[in-house]
Design goal:
Blueprint lengths: L3 H5 L5 E5 L2 E4 L3 H12 L4 E5 L13 E3 L3 H11 L3 H8 E7 L9 E6 L1 H14 L3 E5 L2 E9 L3 E9 L3 E4 L3 E3 L8 E4 L2 E4 L11 H7 L4 E8 L2 E3 L9 E3 L10 H5 L11 E5 L2 H9 L5 H4 L13 H7 L7 E6 L6 E5 L7 H9 L9 E3 L2 E8 L16 E3 L9 H19 L13 H12 L23 H12 L4 H23 L1 E2 L3 H7 L11 E2 H5 L21 H12 L1 H18 L17 H10 L4 H5 L6 H20 L1
Parallel strand pairs: 1-10, 2-3, 2-11, 3-7, 11-22
Antiparallel strand pairs: 4-6, 5-6, 8-9, 9-10, 12-13, 12-21, 14-21, 15-19, 15-20, 16-17, 17-18, 18-19, 23-24
Helix pairs in contact: 2-12, 3-12, 3-14, 4-5, 8-11, 14-15, 15-18
Length: about 650
């Protein structure tokens, strides 16, 4: 344990300042955390190894995607920044999963990575209460409190500067003790050739925080002049989808008309041969790589080994920005040697003469076991310390930003002595993400997917503002002006739903002309607009010929009206399930329960409950190894304990 006074006694040490909140790391998690704390009125300092790489995208320069688009919309609904910045720097936008139901519609934007970083830096620099500092944090400081145990009290930079704070948010990404691996070549480095972070990992371990070792990677980057796109399939953007940000939507900001295309290509038999001929040089299979990689984003050699029944795999050639010829080869990450990477790339159709500008690499890094966190993302080992992003074992910019926003909100609330802000699984994908991490842990880099959310029909991308804007306004991250726009939109939706349900139409030639081409049955008598809309073959826009009284409404309003009416029965069932879920979720568990002493609990349940220390009955029920019978025993114990304490 090192205190402020002890740190100041070292050579070259000096007192550099006192801030309400310290944020370590300026990736997507750190940027959101710092903005959230500063926008709540707290003096906040954000440290980064390199200010020119702030909000960098070392892997694919895209925001959103399946489940990730939902996260970005939720970040925006709570008052975060990612969605706004993505809208203003997008070079292509698409809505994924259009052929499926609205529960899995997911917006995705290809981003100009340099413009995104520069714009985010400008936003941070102009934020009141927020200060940026290019410096490496190598150690956390803490002190012992008789009541709360260890509490964080500051941080130390490599240059000896001692910063004091009662709340620290660590968002170290993939930098802690990181090393880059390409075949037999191994060297200490962070992503994109930046410096790694040394020392902070040891400081966390000294505080009793359990660490683990993960691995991720990034594919090659190519020069577009050396690629023959005529041999590839073109993938254009779409202009009929709303932006990520609700404010931008209300202001009429939409995707650019001159969007840059992406391209798709498939591996060839030669690709397969090159990989298997050189498998002995793959660090992934030779034992050189110690960290666990992401199952849902495997390297190309891993794909061929694990999916032997597939003769080929798809890759995406995606632009890095407006003002660069650099292209990103998504789906082709690898840790094979550079000379083998050249052979692999040139085995793809249209890339026979491709020039690699940046080699692919794997990167290993230290992260923490997220089960050592409370649902607020505060450490169970060190009070006042919050962690967010890839340090918590997750992967992806969107997952990082979502955690950063929650960590920044709660770091500020901690300083002010307020109760933590926690979203549950029925309220947001953010709630699912954090609950999965802190309750179940992860043995590999965690990626958000729609299948992880049991209430995904309710947790749609289109209603994120309806679910979360109220919270953002209460916290102080949503302005009054935006809140009034939000309430006006809610009123428009409600009024239009009532109108659709109460407007009845008699059979008519116009209705017949509308329904016949759609293959829809002609009603024998009067029918409401809502009843027509419930038919799967009919959409809101199709009803225009028979709906003369409709007024012009924003597309986001009419889309939500259509979903609410068309899936009304399913949504009602989902809300019933959510009500049952909340009855358990909101039954809190007192801290320090002696699980080992509760008779009736199975041995495995006792061990798991004692280790995870769940904060609610709901969280306890999701711990692997805790059965419904164990939950029944736990409920009886808690009720009996409360009766005893109430009678004292």
């Amino acid at each position: 344990m090192t205190t402020i006074s002890e740190a100041l006694q070292r050579d070259f040490a000096y007192r550099a300042g006192n801030y309400d909140v310290i944020v370590v790391g300026a990736g997507h998690a750190g940027c959101e955390a710092a903005l959230a704390a500063a926008r709540q009125g707290l003096s906040t300092i954000l440290f980064t190894l390199n200010l020119d790489s702030l909000a960098n995208m070392p892997c694919n320069p895209s925001i959103g995607g399946t489940a990730k688009g939902q996260l970005v919309r939720e970040i925006d609904a709570l008052g975060g920044q990612m969605g706004k910045t993505a809208d203003l720097t997008a070079i292509q936008m698409r809505m994924l999963n259009r052929s499926k139901g609205p529960a899995v519609f997911s917006p995705r934007a290809q981003i100009d990575r340099r413009k995104y970083s520069q714009l985010m830096k400008t936003i941070l620099e102009k934020e009141e209460n927020l200060f940026l500092r290019q410096s490496e944090i190598i150690e956390l400081l803490w002190e012992k409190d008789e009541d709360s145990g260890l509490s964080v009290c500051g941080a130390v930079t490599r240059s000896g500067a001692v910063y004091e704070s009662s709340s620290v948010v660590v968002c170290s990404g993939t930098y802690m003790e990181s090393r880059v691996i390409m075949g037999e070549v191994i060297y200490e480095s962070g992503p994109d050739g930046l410096f790694p972070s040394h020392g902070l990992s040891k400081s966390l371990a000294d505080a009793g925080i359990p660490l683990q070792r993960f691995k991720t990677g990034t594919p090659v980057r190519l020069n577009a002049r050396s690629v023959d796109f005529s041999k590839m399939e073109r993938q254009d953007g779409e202009t009929d989808i709303p932006p990520f940000s609700f404010e931008h939507e209300m202001a009429g900001i939409h995707p650019p008309d001159n969007q840059i295309p992406c391209w798709t290509v498939w591996t060839s038999p030669e690709t397969r041969k090159v990989i298997f001929d050189n498998m002995d040089r793959s660090p992934l299979y030779s034992g050189v790589i110690e960290g666990t990689g992401p199952r849902y984003c495997p390297s190309i050699e891993d794909k061929f080994v694990k999916f032997k029944d597939k003769e080929r795999h798809q890759a995406f050639v995606e632009p890095m920005g407006d003002d660069t010829s650099e292209m990103y080869l998504q789906g082709m990450s690898t840790s094979l040697p550079e000379e083998i990477q050249v052979q692999i790339v040139r085995s793809l159709p249209g890339m026979e003469n491709a020039h690699i500008q940046r080699s692919a690499y794997a990167i290993e890094y230290d992260c923490i076991d997220p089960t050592s966190l409370f649902p607020s993302l505060e450490s169970r080992c060190l009070s006042g310390l919050f962690t967010a992003g890839q340090i918590n074992g997750s992967s992806g910019y969107e997952e990082a930003a979502a955690q950063g926003l929650i960590a920044g909100i709660n770091a500020a609330r901690y300083v002010r002595g307020k109760s933590p802000f926690v979203l549950d699984r029925s309220e947001a994908y953010i709630g699912v993400l954090i609950d999965d991490l802190v309750t179940k842990g992860t043995s590999e880099p965690y990626r958000m997917m729609t299948s992880r959310a049991e209430y995904r029909l309710f947790l749609r991308q289109d209603n994120a503002d309806e679910r979360l804007t109220e919270y953002g306004h209460q916290i102080g991250l949503i302005s009054d002006d935006r809140y009034h726009l939000f309430t006006a939109k809610k009123q428009m939706i409600a009024a239009e739903e009532v109108r659709m349900r109460t407007t009845y139409l008699p059979p008519s030639p116009v209705m017949t002309a509308m329904l016949t081409p759609l293959g829809s049955t002609i009603p024998p008598s009067g029918i409401s607009l809502a009843e027509l809309l419930r038919r799967p073959e009919i959409h809101y826009s199709d009803l225009a010929p028979v709906d003369a009284d409709r007024r012009e409404l924003p597309a986001s309003v009419t889309f939500e009206v259509e979903v609410n009416i068309k899936y009304e029965g399913y949504i009602r069932l989902e809300k019933d399930r959510i009500d049952k879920f909340k009855s358990l979720e909101h039954r809190s568990l007192p801290q320090g329960i002696p699980f080992d002493e509760i008779t009736g609990l199975r041995l495995e349940a006792r061990q798991k409950l004692a280790r995870f220390q769940p904060v609610s009955i709901g969280q306890a029920s999701r711990i692997s190894g805790v059965s419904p019978a164990d939950i029944a025993v736990l409920l009886v114990y808690v009720d009996a304990r409360r009766r005893r304490e109430g009678s004292i």
